Amino acid sequence: MEILVLNGSPKGDLSVTMQYVAFLAKKNPGHTFPIVNIAQRINQLETDPVAFDAVVAQVRKADAVLWAFPVYYMLVHGNFKRFIELVHERGAAPAFGGKYAASLSTSIRFFDHTAHNYINAVADDWGMRYHGRYSAKMSDLLDPAERDRLAAFAAAFLAAAARGLPTARAHQPLVPAGGRYTPGPAAAPVDTGGRKVLLVTDEGPDDANLAAMTARLAAAFTGPVETVNLRDLDIKGGCLGCCRCAWDNTCVYDGSDGFTAFYREKVEPADIVLYAGAVRDRYLSAKWKSYFDRTFFKNHVPTLSGKQFAFLVSGPLAQLANLRQILEAYGEFQHTGFLGIVTDEGDPAHTDALLDRLAADAVAQASQRYLPPPSFLSVAGGKLFRDEIWSRMRFPFVADHKYFKANGLYDFPHRDRADRLRSFLLYWLVHIPAVRKQVYGPQITTHMIAPLKKLVDSL
């Protein structure tokens, strides 16, 4: 069979992901694995219809499709995302219909599941037979056990495609949500108190609802709101994955476009940051995705830390649990006072009320310097970054290591010696049957609440 590999790495053949594909080709000599470097060639595919049509013809000819990509900011690279948009815009999705598909990613496994969920949903939308996903850590190929696991996954995928085995659809078609959003006047605009409010949008001529939402939110503040459209920014291209920034946060594009200057001069000094975008397929636009990718010049540092932050989304977000999780996780792992997401899905008057509340909450939380407590989304991700940068990723991410060390993010093992001694003693004491009977009886629940109850009683 011919397994067409759609390569989502901007580095083309020099991608870690493609080494996994090369391994699969070596392990399965009875099949062919032609590769199309989609992300690397996106400018050509967008501007040259002949080149785009040639890729579609390859898809039509193939027996199955392997989506292979590195994970960038919880999704595929912005260039890969743009290819998916082009398929929609040019009516090329039928070429993918009925094809068996699988997805293969490489990463440090930070929100790799949301990237695979997205590809799974796109495959479902195009009528493909999605077999499953394989998420590899970048160095897994060096481990014999992991090589065996990857080979087993590929064997199952090839067998399913050869035998025409049934596959389950995980995502139902999207239903258009809401209608035209016509805003009313702001009820009681809130004074920003001199705080800097930045609203970044990607609205275009067809995004009437998004434009109305951003204008209505800006009117909910009495102070100035600086609005920047991504379409007007000087962005020469997407992240190259070159890791030039890993040494000192200097982007390879510095001096040739204006992105890092914009981020440093507008985003980082703002007190309240608001991002607004419309749903494109099952994410925001490729332009937004490239924006997030380019912010990686700051590597794994939370550059929005301490800011009040929110998203405005035009489109059926209620049907896109995966996108909601991505947006919520972004607000969390950036260490922001995340204010939530407002959409245009409901009654316009209710959307107005939500926008008014968003403005009021942003100012109130900024004045109180309130940040919500973290959840699993940021705690787990933070520990993953901590462990990786401490060990394997200290090189090349030298700037990250310096930041993590200076800000106390290397918090293991904890230094509470009294707690460690207590845990050590109790661990061995409960090996004594008589002590164990007492500890795991009524005492344990009383002991758990004792310090908390003592504090509450003292108030």
For the structure shown, list the relevant keywords.
459 residues; alpha/beta; Rossmann fold; 3 domains; five-stranded parallel sheet; 10 strands; 45% helix; 14% strand
Quick recap of the structure?
The protein is of the alpha/beta class and 459 residues long.
List the helices and strands and how they pair.
Elements: E1 3-7, H1 16-27, E2 35-37, H2 42-47, H3 49-61, E3 64-70, H4 78-89, E4 100-107, H5 112-125, E5 129-137, H6 144-163, E6 197-201, H7 208-219, E7 225-229, H8 245-248, H9 259-267, E8 272-278, H10 286-294, E9 308-314, H11 321-333, E10 337-343, H12 348-368, H13 376-390, H14 398-406, H15 417-429, H16 433-458
Parallel strand pairs: 1-2, 1-3, 3-4, 4-5, 6-7, 6-8, 8-9, 9-10
Helix pairs in contact: 4-10, 11-13
Would you write up a description of this structure?
- This is NAD(P)H-dependent oxidoreductase.
- Pfam families: FMN_red.
- Residues 1-108 form the NADPH-dependent FMN reductase-like domain.
- This protein is α/β, with parallel strands linked by helices and 459 residues long.
- It folds into 3 domains: 3-163, Flavodoxin domain (Rossmann fold); 197-368, 3-Layer(aba) Sandwich (Rossmann fold), CATH 3.40.50; 417-458.
- 45% of the residues lie in helices and 14% in strands.
- The strands form 2 sheets. The chain has a 5-stranded parallel β-sheet with strand order 2-1-3-4-5, with helices on both faces. Strands 7-6-8-9-10 form a 5-stranded parallel β-sheet, sandwiched between helices.
- The termini are far apart.
- The model has no long low-confidence stretch (mean pLDDT 95).
